Structure formats: structure tokens, C-alpha cells
Amino acid sequence: MSSQEDNDDLIDSAIFVEPSDYYPPPKPATFESRKLPTGETLQLRLVGHNPLWGHHLWNGAQVVTEYLHDHARDLVMGRNVLELGAGAGLPSLAAAIWGAEHVVLTDYPDEDLVDNMRINVDAAKDVLPHRFPLVVQGYVWGASAEPLLSDLGPGSGGFDTLILADLLFNHSQHAALTSTIRATLKRSESAKALVFFTPYTPWKYDKDIAFFDLARDAGFRVTQVVKRVMDKLMFKDDRGDELLRRTVFGYELTWADLDR
After folding, report:
1. Pairwise CA distance, residues 250 & 179, whole Å
2. pLDDT at 21
3. C-beta of residue 53 within 8 angstroms of C-beta of residue 197
4. Are 97 and 128 in contact (CB under 8 A)?
5. pTM, full prediction
6. Average model confidence (pLDDT) for the chain?
7. Cα dist. 152→9, 31, 43, 93, 103 in Å?
8. What is the rounded distance in angstroms from the CA atom of residue 104 to the CA atom of residue 47?
9. Dihedral Cα 95, 98, 99, 102, nearest 10 deg
10. What are residue 229's DSSP bridge partners?
11. Can you tell me the distance from the alpha carbon of 222 to that of 9, in angstroms, rounded to the nearest whole number?
12. Largest Cα span, the chain
């Protein structure tokens, strides 16, 4: 036996095994309660932690939900609704309660995120219309939209209302988001994509709003419909302009060539 083999025999392989408490335990899920303007209360589960930021109930989701309520006749009732990057799914659940014809919640196909959406749908069953067709799917922005459209059945032409809440900080995904909007938004004068966001990193605000230049180039008319200053900061210890970090901007995208 070589001297190297002798030395290897003397090494205790256990020293290379991390102790059971070496890694911190996964963060537990948290819960947020939200009372809708129509009186229903939703208990929303948020994943404990996720690199895709699904562990927060974002300002954009809260404000776009209020906007859906205020314009339910035009944006929700009897319409097919798709939410991208849904997280906890607050706007989608509200749309289901307020008379949407069909609702599809999507987020990145991460097991924790998708399971969490299903948990929130199940938890809301007591306030959802009986046997409401609410579908949960994992979806990668920019991928084929066929799995999303297939939920609507033949002849639907696409979704009447799209919801994108606080997604624009993903600057590298702007082109993919635009592609998905083009592929899923119904070719109709009344079809609208709602894009609501807060500049949580104000020094990147120009990169946030560059999304709308892509949207215009893709054939959409871009109209600002909301500017809402929240009472509190989501991340109080972050740097940058506090007013911008508290402000939710809301835009509607419509097909430019179909506008009246």
C-alpha cells in the first residue's frame, strides 16, 4: 500500500459532512389578510422565501385590485382574465369574485410558487362563485402561449384582460413579457393589459419604463391611468427617492391599430 493510501485511510470522511444545523432552516410561509371593497376577506399565503420575490404582497397587486373593482364592468365582468407573475394571486381571486368569466393565474413554474397559488385558490373557495373555472399554471414569459389559450376553448381569441403587477423590475424579461402580451391579449378594441408597478429601485426607473417603449414598438397604445402614493414604504431601509418608492404607476395597453 502506498504512503498516500495510508494517509487516506487515516482521514475521517465524517469531517466533510455538514452538521444537521449547518444550513439555516427554510423560512416558513407567511399570511396576509385582505378585505375587498365588496366585503369579502381573502387569507393569502405567501411562500416563506423565493428568489423570484413571490414572498411579498406587492403594492402593484394591491392597487391594480382596487382598479379592477372600480372598473369591474369594463375590465372584469364576463371577461377572460390572465395574470402573469401572480404570486399570491390577489387580483385574480378578486376578479373571480367580481364576475369574470374565466381566470388563469400563472407564475414561474417553480413548485413552491405554483403550489402556493393553488393553496390560495382553495382557501378562497368559500367566497368564490360555485365551481368557478379558475386555473393555476406554471408559465415562463415568452414561451408558447398555447397552454394558456387552451384553457379558454376554441374561438375565444385570447384574454380580454391581462394583469401584470410589479413585474417591470425584471428588466431582462421585458421583451419576453411583451411577446406574451401580444400572444395572449385578444384582438379587440376592449381588450386591455394592465401594467402596474412601483420603482422600488428609483435609480433604475428609466429601465423600468423602457418596457413601454417596447410595448409601443410591438403595436400597443400606452395610457397612464393611475398614480397612487402609498402611505408606507415596502422596504424602508432601502435607498433612493422615498416618494418614488411609495408610488404605484398604472398603465393600460391596448391594440393601437384597433383604438377608436
Report:
1. 20
2. 55
3. no
4. yes
5. 0.88
6. 88
7. 65, 31, 27, 17, 9
8. 20
9. 20
10. 247
11. 70
12. 88
